[in-house]
């Protein structure tokens, strides 16, 4: 059954006649056609799926082959949606609740059908990956692991965090990546104690730990990996912290399987970190889903996420960390496929501490 058919099959139980998709990644997921955000929408009716966009996409749509998807060319995207709904006598229209207030105001003024918001309807479909998606994520993870090797080959005292991020960006794109899925984090020395530091103009110095966290799209899908390495001799406490974080990462991976709840999986790694005395220095979730977006369902798994119950072929990250102000931090992140038999780690870069000598 196609993705569009799976959505259409839900209409009766959702008490809607059609569903309007405005999120670009969801349009791509359902149809395979790429629109830039805001350049149109997808109306899924009981009979077909209609991409409504303007003349800039006309040639691309003429070349686009699909048995389920048709197109309407119009500058009045939502006026066209209303006309189609009226013409097909569709009286209840579902829509994504992530739209802006401005767009809701447009819907409220234009639509003669009743409009009903839905939360993460398509995102829940995206949660479990099919074999094609998993192969794309494997390839993205392999490329990022190679990107880490590249960084280790060029890093040296004196290079700035931003220079290193720029060189990595060029290398990844030359290898086939299209764009980063989030701003690359290169955080050295005391900056590595900030979980969401970005690459700054700080030169990397001898004695620094460096946290590298990056994700790149390859064929539409993004992996997400983090490695922390040392440049020269580092604070002995950070060596101990590295060992704790790495053990926590492996413990979570060892217990990741179909049916486990998010809080239970998180607890395996978090308890180890707390027992080592660093519970207050681990201040984020254990991981999240990846796919067409770098953060997708399950949005995060952490203490309190009892409602998350992992399913077969979900792809998630495992990323424990410890962050000590003014000294530095360590985070190690792998991407894994959840299966009935356990976890398949698709991040191939080694996790032992690498020390780069000048």
| Portion in beta strands | 15-25%
The number of distinct helices, counting runs of at least 4 residues, comes to 11
Content-based structural category: alpha+beta
Q: How much helicity do the residues have?
A: 25-40%
Major β-sheet strand ordering: 4-3-2-1-5-6
Task: Please state the CA-atom Rg, rounded to the nearest Å.
Answer: 23 Å
The number of strands is: 19
- How would you sum up the major sheet? 6 strands, mixed
End-to-end separation in angstroms reads 56 Å
Low-confidence stretches: none
- H-E string: HHEHEEHEHEHEHHHEEEEEHHEEEEEEEE
Mean pLDDT: 96
Which outline best applies?
A: elongated
Structural key phrases:
single chain; 358 residues; alpha+beta; six-stranded mixed beta sheet; four-stranded mixed beta sheet; 19 strands; 23% strand
